[in-house]
Amino acid sequence: MSPVGWLVLLLPALLRRGSSGVAAAGKVPAVIVFGDSSVDTGNNNFIPTIARSNFWPYGRDYADGLPTGRFSNGRLATDFISEAFGLPPCIPAYLDTNLTIDQLASGVSFASAATGLDNATAGVLSVITIGEQLQYFREYKERLRIAKGEAEAGEIIGEALYIWSIGTNDFIENYYNLPERRMQYTVAEYEAYLLGLAESAIRDVHSLGGRKMDFTGLTPMGCLPAERIGNRDNPGECNEDYNAVARSFNGKLQGLAARLNKDLPGLQLVYADTYKILASVVDKPADYGFENAVQGCCGTGLFEAGYFCSLSTSLLCQNANKYVFFDAIHPTEKMYKIIADTVMNTTLNVFL
């Protein structure tokens, strides 16, 4: 097992040490999530959109083998991160009305599949905007105050880990697929526009009491199976232009994180580099125990996602653990676990 893996396994034990040592300084009572399908644990089940995955074969390797609304065969990276902090192993979706505020107090996802930092991206498939996610967070904070009292609610909000995973759809769903933003902005200008929106969202959560934050960078989006098949210049290969944009955006995101850590009192904003790990896995999948990094497990694995996966189950792979991707866009549970290990390694020294 890698050193990162051992650290993730040891972390819950460290956190259980009570008030002694580093554990007290680094307590994380909840994991609170904003973002897109990479971290949506089922919110889109409760809104009128086709951007859903609450049907088989999604969730086939989840605890009970049932779909949850997660775009994967099992758990997501944020679920593993929650578990690593000694919290529940699955983060609930905020819009699930069957859940009480007590069940949401140790972690909640406001994320919505197919959304982006840009409201125009959310509008493509009528999903939850980042502004609406922030409004839900305000509502959540008030519900906590009523249920737990001012002091306990304040501690949860102030000590929680906030994870942001968003931005890919702004490029592959919006900028490169629809003409409006390309007519308005160059790529560099659009990056700046998105970073401004990210800064505003971070400042909003900070003003509401959030302090420990992890902003996940873009992955090599040009290597998603759907982008490989759509690569007109070199079909079947990674779209290196898209990957270059992801690297450029990530570099600027790191700069934003450094600046906000100086500007906002008490903020601990960490940039999580998931680009390198996914690029490494795609480049040498066998080194990580995978056999296929080019196709998804579902259907042909080249273009199927969402409802198209449910129409292609006769072609479903037998063992998703051999695949980096479950559908043509989203990773398998095994890949999400590797991503979670990487994020935990990034945040370990900051929040402990």
From TrEMBL:
Alphabetized UniProt keyword annotations: Signal
Which residues, if any, are the signal sequence?
1-21
TM spans (from-to): none
* Keyword Electron transport among UniProt keywords: no
MF-aspect GO terms:
hydrolase activity, acting on ester bonds
Q: Which CDD domains match?
A: SGNH_plant_lipase_like
Q: Name one Pfam family in it.
A: Lipase_GDSL
* Record carries keyword NAD: no
The UniProt entry's sequence similarity note says: Belongs to the 'GDSL' lipolytic enzyme family.
Listed name of the protein? GDSL esterase/lipase
Q: Which organism is it from?
A: Oryza meridionalis
